[in-house]
């Protein structure tokens, strides 16, 4: 009793009575028995593994704390909430499958293609691509680029006509070079004027001359 009095356990008697009344003391006894049973069932090897696991867990928690990963927890929670984390997992699986499916030959061809593309970009930059881009920007701002785009179909058709005209001139030059020289005189001129094809040709040339004169010579005031 003297030891109980000296230890101040008398002050604990009301609390123990309350615990006995509401069953907490019985629960503590059961918990102590469970702990004792678990302690008896644990072998030294199990205790060692448990201690190693707890040590590794504490080391991992220390590394997480030092790396500041606790600040990433709200972002990860948000990603889990809106499904972005699941999408990242699926993307990683797709990337892993693609990486497994790619052969060494495919990687080599892809690397060669990327290298050629970078070389082309370098040559394009060294060749004054910035000046070309500036010219295109000025053409776009002035509306000339749109006009050029609108006239390209008509221009292509006219270029085809010009090509046909040049081919006709070349064929005529070749044909006249093989013909005998003209006799000259009024008789030759009369014979030429009597040829219907020659008359049509002269009429065509006169029409072309009039159109050229109207397009190139300004009208008289």
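^ Assign residues to that structure.
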């Amino acid at each position: 009793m003297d030891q109980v009095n000296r230890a101040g356990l008398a002050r604990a008697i009301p609390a123990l009575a309350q615990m006995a009344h509401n069953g907490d003391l019985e629960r503590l006894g059961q918990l102590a028995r469970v702990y004792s049973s678990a302690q008896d069932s644990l072998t030294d090897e199990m205790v060692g593994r448990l201690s190693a696991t707890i040590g590794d867990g504490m080391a991992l928690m220390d590394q997480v704390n030092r790396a500041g990963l606790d600040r990433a927890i709200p972002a990860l929670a948000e990603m889990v909430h809106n499904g972005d984390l699941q999408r990242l997992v699926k993307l990683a699986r797709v990337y892993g499958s693609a990486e497994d499916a790619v052969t060494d030959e495919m990687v080599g061809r892809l690397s060669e293609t990327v290298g050629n593309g970078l070389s082309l970009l370098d040559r394009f930059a060294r060749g004054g691509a910035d000046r070309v881009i500036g010219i295109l920007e000025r053409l776009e701002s002035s509306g000339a680029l749109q006009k050029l785009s609108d006239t390209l179909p008509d221009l292509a058709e006219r270029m085809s006509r010009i090509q046909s005209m040049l081919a006709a001139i070349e064929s005529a030059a070749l044909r006249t070079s093989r013909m005998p020289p003209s006799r000259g005189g009024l008789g030759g001129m009369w014979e030429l004027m009597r040829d219907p094809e020659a008359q049509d040709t002269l009429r065509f040339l006169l029409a072309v001359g009039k159109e050229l004169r109207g397009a190139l010579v300004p009208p008289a005031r």
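Residues 143-178 form one domain.
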